[in-house]
Amino acid sequence: MEIAEILFAFFTIMVVLPVIFLIFTRNIIRAAFALVIAFLGLAAIYVLLNAELMAVVQILIYAGGVVVLLIFGIMLTKRMNQEGVFSGHRNTLLGGLIFLVVLGFLMALITSSGLTWASQESLPSDQVRTVGIMFLTDYLLGFEIIAFLLLVALVGSAYLAKKSGNI
To answer: Alpha-carbon distance 95 to 68, whole Å?
Structure first.
């Protein structure tokens, strides 16, 4: 067994265990921190797969930005009483059943797609430069449409927040 396989197994456990904890915990803050650990483990798996750009994006956007925004949103919400923030909605059986159906569908879709693994020689050496060039040439229209939709969502949420008097 090589060191890469051992590290891959370790980081897989580092992703799976916090997600299982996240499913069964009732404390939302602890669930958010478990999500951070899972995102960092996923970034480490990206590094092992030679996808360094995806690892950096995973750390900066998801582990850094999204989870911090989630934690601030939880901490800044008004609560009537001073007890902790807990989730009271649980239907583990239905959630597990939906998970198995979606997992089976995705596995069938992946196996029927006919995709093959890329060899190491076919990967570009400078991934950041390649992605940057593709964003500004081949995928410029899609990139600009997504940026515009995010701007519309931001303005709309600010308008709704002002209208409801929460600002």
So the answer is: 26
Select from 69, 70, 8, 60 the least CA-distant residue to 39.
60
Question: Residue 27 pairs with which residues in a beta bridge?
Answer: 86
Distance in angstroms (rounded) separating the CA atoms of residues 51 and 124: 10
> Contact 152/145 with Cβ under 8 angstroms?
no
Contacts of 12 (CB under 8 A, 6+ apart): 41, 45
Map tokens 């997504």 to a residue.
Answer: 146
**What confidence tens digit (pLDDT) does each residue in 25-77 have?**
888 888 888 999 999 999 999 999 888 888 988 898 888 888 888 877 777 77
pTM of the entire structure? Answer: 0.62
CA distances from 38 to 12, 23, 113 (A): 9, 12, 28
